[in-house]
Amino acid sequence: MLGRTGFIAAIGILISLQYVFALRYLPLGDSITGPYGCWRALLYQKLNSAGYDLNNIDFVGNQTGPGCSVPYDFNNEGHLGFEAVNIASQNLLVGWLVDAKPDIVTMFLGTNDCLYGQSTTSILAAYTTLVAQMRASNPKVVILVAQIIPMNYSSCVGCNSRVIDLNSQIPAWATSLTTSNSPITVVDQYTGFDISTDLIDGLHPNDPSGITKIANKWFTPFVSALKLLGVTPVRSGPSATFSCFDVIPPWGTCAQQLSWGNCAASWMFGYCQQTCGSCGTSSTITSTTSITPTSTTTRSTTTTTTTSANPLSTTTTKTTTSTTSPTTTTTTATTSSSSVVTKTSTTTSRTTSTTTSTTTSSSTCAAKYGQVTEI
């Protein structure tokens, strides 16, 4: 029989194996993928709604965040201010791929290149280098390349003209490099994106319209990539629960989830206990019993039990006051996560007994986000 240590080790091995064999997806890009990349959270939610098992699709990358309005796996490789030409010339992707080992990559690069005046020829050459590096990591990697969103940056005259020129040449570039083992799909993020209503600052997508359009554009080709790799939906609709490890990867921390997902969590015995502060369940039960003896002795007992959103934390406070002229004795007992039974013998007779119970409970996390509190 496994002891506690052995049980914890077994759970850890199972969790590690889950992520070893999960399909690995790398969101690669600049700040539109990173700090302004809540389209990734929407894509994650759309996959869940389509019936995919998110335990088997692992978003990977050394970057985390941002905090979005819905829970999601926040790993990515989106870097603020990075250009495709610099990522390629400095071989930065090579190092990122060592950890990521992706099966699918969405490449959303070129905005900063256009902003800083890089030529279309230089950007496409950088794309070619990056594709070669991806294939060196995984010869069967499936690559989705964005035709980037428009720009309306006041201090950059001609930026959007460079975007249009780059986008016009991406399809032919992709056709020249795509293979049956490692196909390249072009995803048009430009068409239908409104510079007046979908950008927050002339460069980045706003929330919700901008990020929603981006997530919607990625979704269909992403599903096609999953199908190509043998990953299909496991149910007809959204899951009622998310695994804790969808939002807190095994190598992450509960503090990260608190920071990025607005949730509080704690590791216990190899499990991740998780509740959302905005919708966690809490109950308060108060019972009061008054006992009036036939003599001049008055005895009252008040018991308050509070159960917090954390299923492992319960605190009970019991206060007993006995008054017998001319002395008064007060005894207070506080118990955390345990039960105390006290037997008292008394010769007084009871004349009155009143019990009041009040329970307050808010909506559960599962009702709002479809999350479980533990796995």
Question: Keyphrases for this structure?
Answer:
single chain; 375 residues; alpha/beta; 4-stranded antiparallel β-sheet; globular; disordered C terminus
Describe this structure in a few short sentences:
This protein is α/β, with parallel strands linked by helices and 375 residues long. It has helices at 4-21, 39-49, 84-89, 92-100, 111-115, 120-137, 159-177, 209-228, 244-247, 254-260, 365-369; strands at residues 23-29, 57-59, 77-78, 104-108, 142-147, 184-188, 263-268, 271-276, 283-291, 298-307, 314-324, 327-336. It contains eleven helices and twelve strands.
Describe this structure in words.
The protein has 375 residues and is α/β, with parallel strands linked by helices. It has helices at residues 4-21, 39-49, 84-89, 92-100, 111-115, 120-137, 159-177, 209-228, 244-247, 254-260, 365-369; strands at 23-29, 57-59, 77-78, 104-108, 142-147, 184-188, 263-268, 271-276, 283-291, 298-307, 314-324, 327-336. The protein has eleven helices and twelve strands. Strands 1, 2, 3, 4, 5 and 6 form a six-stranded parallel β-sheet that branches. A four-stranded antiparallel β-sheet has the order 9-10-11-12, with no helix packed on it. The protein has a two-stranded antiparallel sheet with strand order 7-8. Helices cover 33% and strands 21% of the residues.
